[in-house]
Amino acid sequence: MLATLIHAPRDIRVETVPDPVLSTGGDAIVKVVAACVCGSDLWPYRGVTPTHGAHRIGHEFVGVVEAVGDDVRIIEVGDFVIAPFYVCDNTCINCRNGVSTSCLHGGWWGGEDHLGGFADGGQGERVRVPLADGTLVPVRGEIRDDQVPGLLTLSDVMGTGHHAAVSAGVRPGDSVAVVGDGAVGLCAIIAARRLGATTIIAMSRHPERQELARVFGATHLVAERGDVGVTAVQELTHGIGADRVLECVGTKESMDQAIRSTRPGGMVGYVGAPNGGPELPVRPLFNRNVGVNGGIAPVRGYIEELLPDVLSGAIEPGRVFDLELPLGEAAEAYAAMDERRAIKVLLRP
Amino acid sequence: MLATLIHAPRDIRVETVPDPVLSTGGDAIVKVVAACVCGSDLWPYRGVTPTHGAHRIGHEFVGVVEAVGDDVRIIEVGDFVIAPFYVCDNTCINCRNGVSTSCLHGGWWGGEDHLGGFADGGQGERVRVPLADGTLVPVRGEIRDDQVPGLLTLSDVMGTGHHAAVSAGVRPGDSVAVVGDGAVGLCAIIAARRLGATTIIAMSRHPERQELARVFGATHLVAERGDVGVTAVQELTHGIGADRVLECVGTKESMDQAIRSTRPGGMVGYVGAPNGGPELPVRPLFNRNVGVNGGIAPVRGYIEELLPDVLSGAIEPGRVFDLELPLGEAAEAYAAMDERRAIKVLLRP
Question: Residue limits of the Enoyl reductase (ER) domain (chains A, B) (predicted)?
Answer without folding.
Answer: 7-347
